[in-house]
Design brief:
The complex is a heterodimer of chains A (598) and B (295).
Chain A lengths: L8 E8 L4 H14 L3 E7 L8 E9 L10 E6 L2 H7 L3 E9 L21 E3 L2 E5 L2 H7 L6 H12 L4 H11 L5 H21 L16 E5 H11 L4 E4 L6 H10 L6 E4 L3 H13 L4 E5 L1 H17 L3 E7 L16 H6 L8 E3 L4 H18 L2 E7 H5 L1 E5 L16 H7 L27 E3 L14 H13 L11 E4 L4 E5 L4 H13 L4 E6 L1 E3 L3 H10 L2 E6 L5 H10 L5 E5 L8 H13 L5
Parallel strand pairs in A: 1-4, 4-5, 5-7, 9-10, 9-11, 11-12, 12-14, 13-14, 18-19, 18-21, 21-22
Antiparallel strand pairs in A: 1-3, 2-3, 6-7, 8-15, 13-20, 17-19
Chain B lengths: L26 H14 L7 E5 L7 H4 L3 E4 L5 H11 L4 E7 H7 L1 H10 L4 E6 L2 E2 L5 E2 L23 H8 L3 E6 L3 H13 L4 E6 L11 H7 L1 E2 L11 H11 L3 E7 L5 H4 L17 H12 L2
Parallel strand pairs in B: 1-2, 1-3, 3-4, 4-8, 7-8, 9-10
Antiparallel strand pairs in B: 5-6, 7-10
Helix pairs in contact in B: 1-7, 4-5
């Protein structure tokens, strides 16, 4: 990725939940992507189904877009609150489209600044009244104004109206002919209004190119796809924001491959189902967010003790307790790394892009079976909900490694002498699954010996079994990427998850300004990859850890396992929103100059 | 269902570690009933999975010569559900104590019943937390003196049979460790039932319950299996008897046909998932995805 593309354009539609803001945003993103732009979306929404403030940002560029925009070029405000909330985010000269008479950020009513369609400046932005509601009413009701707004936006931003019409048609494909006709008419009405009343150069044009071979999808979509491609056939979870999309995806698609998605009574049951399936030799997964992960912690320990492979997707949101259910944070990282009582190995992967959500989820199944332990794919709200254009995911490029399994021949040969928890050099013992004749496996959450027989007395057995389990994951980063570094510089910027996008963009800008920045993305958080991270820290003059939490959880792990006390500085955001690239850029610049110490 | 094996099996084919329950514990009879049932049904030991929880009852997986998962407290049912869906060719039995089933894991019981997962749930109900030395359990009678109720238990107990009927159980039986032959029949028919079979077992604790002994139960248990007029296919009859007698009844109380979960799941593979190839039909999946995400 080079410096931010100068032609990046950011458009936002805001209004109330239930007004079709999400639908309009998705359609606009898809249409822009179909016209050839790289896009990334950013939703700001409340846990209120009808009537709460909501917005949908679409940032479009000629190259990959990895973060929300620093400033907006065009805001469609379907109500006063949206104008007041998002108007200030417009860049100077940006365009605010609202109904005539609506309130604007500087308190004045939107009005014509002169002749028909001439925008009036408001707080550095241009206010352009457009009769969305009146146009929509003529077409059958005010609910159509979101689609009218798309027609207006398309005309202003050079989006091919045929592409928009086709995207709208596909969106409402199964809604009946009347709905499709109404929506087509709404696009047309908006387009014509803009053509007849508004100057053509009010807003910058969307980038255009060939879109062939690209998909537009979310991190949640990519996670579900990664699981499917890796052979996941059972999925169990309890609905929770922001992970519910995965449940809905699995419920729609697992039956197509003979599998099933189970909506369980709680998250304890969800992970327990996954344990049962893992014990029986089937790849299974659950996904949740902080509150659900808290419920799963005891169950996770059973998988650790009984050495049963499980894959858990933990999509973080702000806590504690119910916190901010629809917002973004990375404050469960230490919980994910340490959750459950006692000591057992686990692997925590931290993908930082849509493609990595796919690849790491698929990889998680291999690691879970290879190391016979819980593998957690730790993601966050912005990463799983934002949609981005990416090259079509390599479904058939996924490698499957089922780890060490006891063959049927060995089962017959070994019989009663088979040791499910044999003390091997790697700590990994070949696994039998029910149905294999000749052997019998008892997998217990109680301490047990090599054969699986419960032993809660013998100190030597205890010591040997603890050490056996803990040595399993020693070589994990020889089989998976723990870090990815890019760029050269004595300022090391560390990030993971959704922090990677804005950090990468900020780092590119800083390099262009002459500040040498090296970006270290952590792909594997646990076992902490000391061998890979410590040399990077040692080489750096300053280490800036960028994360979405208040206490510096990534920084604390880094300090504990890779040192660097005198030179580590934290850049943290914990207001429920992901970083903007400009915030990171400024933060790194001042941190690079500041004295060390978190 | 599991294919019968050629040679005649006995309970000894399902033996494993020596049981460490207290002498006289009702759980011995439950273990024996499980072993006899599997033998009578001709189930191959490697095609049976027993899932247990925590407490005295949880130890049963160590003593049963089949595959087994000894889970955390109260979670036998969701783990057993995962095993069954992963391999519908296996016979899956969950065993629990009254603490597992009616205390910490009660939530799962109601949901397993309404899902009608094809498994057999055997509850070793002794009305006491034996493994932690005698505290009250969800089925302890009011007024009972225990270390955690030194002035007498104050709560109304859970009524397992009424609860199961209300939740929509398709196989409901209560047996007693005092009548091992009948208990074996009830477990055996529960395993054969295609759906969720609940067998609550009066399994006296001779160490911590000196009141509700085998003799005490024998005097009050009414056996519907001995009553030719009792129709286990009649839900009203079942409601009437558990309404009148609560837990003072043994036998097959209710049985109704319904399609089990693995038969109701849309698109669910006919062969066990565990035997299916891992890789999906990539071309087919790609068509779906191009349609969903393509531009």
């Amino acid at each position: 990725m080079t410096a931010a593309q100068p032609r990046d354009v950011a458009w936002l539609i805001g209004g109330k939940t239930g007004e079709g803001v999400d639908s309009a945003g998705e359609i606009f993103a898809r249409a822009a992507a179909r016209a050839g732009a790289h896009v990334r979306t950013f939703r700001l929404f409340p846990p209120i189904i009808k009537g709460g403030p909501t917005s949908y940002e679409v940032r479009a560029g000629a190259g990959p877009v990895q973060a929300r925009a620093d400033a907006l070029d065009c805001v469609v405000a379907l109500d006063d609150a949206a104008a007041i909330r998002h108007g200030p985010a417009l860049r100077p000269g940006g365009l605010l489209l609202t109904d005539p008479g609506a309130r604007t950020p500087n308190g004045s009513a939107a009005r014509h600044g002169g002749g028909t369609g001439a925008p009036a400046p408001a707080g550095g932005a241009m206010v352009c009244p457009v009769p969305f509601t009146a146009l929509a009413r003529d077409l059958g009701g005010p609910i159509m104004k979101n689609i009218v707004a798309l027609g207006v936006s398309a005309r202003l931003m050079g989006l091919d109206v045929a592409v928009l019409q086709e995207t709208v048609r596909r969106r409402f494909e199964d809604k009946g002919a009347r709905v499709r006709e109404q929506n087509a008419a709404a696009v047309d009405a908006g387009w014509r209004y803009a053509e007849g009343h508004l100057a053509g150069d009010l807003a910058p044009a969307l980038p255009r190119a060939a879109a062939a071979g690209r998909w537009l999808l979310s991190g949640n979509d990519a996670i579900a796809l990664g699981a499917l491609a890796a052979g996941c056939r059972l999925y169990a979870s309890y609905p929770i924001t922001p992970a519910s999309d995965i449940l809905e995806w699995m419920a729609a698609h697992l039956p197509e491959v003979g599998g099933a998605a189970l909506q369980t009574e709680d998250e304890i049951a969800a992970l327990s189902v996954v344990i049962g399936a893992g014990y029986a030799g089937v790849r299974a997964m659950t996904a949740t967010s902080g509150p659900g992960l808290s419920l799963m912690t005891e169950t996770m320990g059973l998988a650790g003790m009984a050495e049963i492979p499980v894959v858990i997707v933990a999509a973080q949101r702000p806590g504690p307790s119910a916190g901010m259910p629809t917002k973004h944070e990375q404050s469960d990282l230490l919980h994910i790394v340490y959750a459950s009582h006692g000591e057992f190995p686990r692997i925590v992967l931290t993908p930082g892009s849509i493609e990595e959500c796919f690849a790491d989820t698929a990889l998680a199944f291999n690691l879970a079976e290879r190391y016979q332990c819980p593998v957690i794919v730790a993601v966050d709200q912005d990463l799983v909900l934002a949609r981005s254009t990416v090259p079509a995911l390599p479904l058939d490029g996924v490698r499957v490694d089922r780890g060490e399994r006891l063959s049927d021949a060995d089962a017959a040969r070994l019989g009663g002498s088979y040791e499910r928890y044999a003390l091997t050099a790697t700590g990994i013992s070949p696994r039998a699954v029910p149905g294999q004749a000749g052997v019998r496996v008892l997998s217990s959450g109680d301490a047990h010996d090599r054969r699986g027989v419960i032993d809660v007395e013998d100190p030597a057995v205890r010591r040997a079994m603890v050490e056996k389990r803990l040595r399993k994951t020693r070589d994990v980063w020889e089989h998976a990427e723990s870090i990815e570094a890019e760029g050269d510089g004595d300022v090391l910027v560390v990030a993971l998850g959704a922090a990677c996008g804005p950090v990468r963009e900020a780092a590119a800008r800083l390099r262009a300004q002459g500040l040498p920045v090296r970006l270290l993305r952590i792909r594997g958080l646990w076992p902490f990859p000391t061998g890979d991270v410590a040399p990077e820290v040692a080489r750096a003059r300053r280490v800036v850890v960028v994360e979405h939490n208040a206490t510096g959880q990534v920084a604390s792990l880094l300090l504990s396992h890779a040192g660097g006390h005198a030179k580590v500085v934290g850049l943290r955001q914990y207001d429920g929103l992901p970083f903007r690239p400009a915030d990171v850029e400024a933060g790194i610049r001042s941190a690079a100059a500041a004295a060390g110490g978190v | 269902m599991t294919a019968p094996v050629a040679t005649a099996l006995t309970h000894k084919d399902f033996a494993a570690e020596r049981a460490t329950w207290c002498p006289g514990c009702g759980d011995f009879a439950v273990l024996r009933a499980l072993q006899e049932s599997c033998a009578h049904l001709g189930l191959a030991p490697h095609r049976v999975v027993l899932v247990s929880g925590i407490g005295c009852s949880g130890k049963i997986t160590s003593y049963m010569g089949t595959y087994g998962v000894h889970t955390h407290h109260g979670r036998t049912l969701p783990v057993a559900t995962g095993v069954k869906l992963a391999n519908r060719g296996l016979t899956v039995i969950a065993a629990a104590g009254d603490g597992d089933a009616y205390g910490i894991g009660l939530n799962h019981l109601i949901h397993a019943i309404r899902r009608d997962v094809d498994l057999t749930y055997v509850i070793m109900d002794n009305g006491v937390y034996g493994n932690t030395k005698g505290q009250t359990s969800p089925t302890t009678a009011p007024g009972t003196l225990t270390p955690s109720s030194p002035r007498g238990a104050v709560d109304e107990p859970v009524h397992p049979l009424r609860l199961a009927l209300a939740a929509g159980a398709t196989y409901l039986a209560q047996g007693s460790s005092g009548d091992p032959a009948q208990l074996t029949r009830l477990v055996e028919r529960g395993i054969a039932h295609r759906g969720f079979a609940l067998v609550n077992v009066i399994s006296p604790c001779p160490t911590y319950d000196r009141v509700r002994t085998y003799a005490w139960w024998r005097e009050r248990l009414h056996n519907v299996d001995a009553d030719p007029a009792y129709d286990a296919g009649d839900a009203r009859a079942a409601w009437e008897i558990v309404g009148a007698r609560d837990t003072d009844v043994i036998g097959l109380l209710y049985r109704a046909p319904r399609r089990a979960l693995d038969e109701r799941l849309p698109g669910f593979a006919a062969a066990p998932l565990a035997a299916e190839p891992l890789r999906p039909d990539v071309d087919r999946v790609r068509r779906i995805l191009d349609d969903e995400y393509g531009l």
